[in-house]
Amino acid sequence: MRILILSFLKSENTKHNEILKKLSTAAESKGHEVRVQNGITEQDQIHLAIYDYIAVVVPASPLFGAKVHPKLPEVLSQCGNPEGKKGCALVVKSGFMSQKMVRVTMRAMEREGMKLDYFEVIENVDHAAYVGKKIG
After folding, report:
1. What digits encode the pLDDT tens for the residues 82-122?
2. What's the CA gap between 53 and 27, in Å, rounded?
3. Measured distance CA(3)–CA(69) in Å, rounded
4. CA angle at residue 3 from 42 to 32, to 5 degrees?
């Protein structure tokens, strides 16, 4: 299965980079073909049509509140038709509203027609390896 891990994490954050690495390694260990792309900076290079599964990874809001990343709906609507694609919503924990951020991200993905089969709050780097095995 071809899997896209669409990241909206900060690329200069080492914890975020380690989490993405663990997610992709764990998914590849199940025999999937995985590609990680940054939804913020690599928007021109994303083509959703060639992937069977799309995993969206976003950071939680800093403290209170939960707003979908402004680029997420834009990427999903402009980079191909995600309608009918399977996917999952993953949120890297920080602050108090991580669970709410999962719900907000799921709603944004479902508005574009995606079918979600998994969602999770990633606690730390080790937990990312466990979550990566469930992708796909």
Report:
1. 888 999 999 999 878 888 999 999 999 999 999 999 999 99
2. 11
3. 21
4. 135
Question: Longest C-alpha distance within the chain, in Å?
Answer: 38
pLDDT tens digits, one per residue of 30-71? 999 999 999 988 877 888 889 999 999 999 877 677 788 888
C-alpha span between 46 and 31 (Å, rounded): 22
Cβ burial of 103 (10 Å; 0-12, 13-18, 19+) is middle
**Long-range residue pairs from 12-19, CB within 8 A, at least 24 positions apart, any chain:** 15/92, 15/125, 16/59, 16/92, 18/125, 18/128, 19/57, 19/92, 19/122, 19/125, 19/128
* b/e 15-50 (16+ beta carbons within 10 angstroms → b): ebbebbebbbebbeeeebebebbbbbeeeeebebee
Look at residue 54 in the predicted model and tell me its pLDDT. Answer: 94
pLDDT number for residue 129: 94
DSSP reduced 3-state for 119 = strand
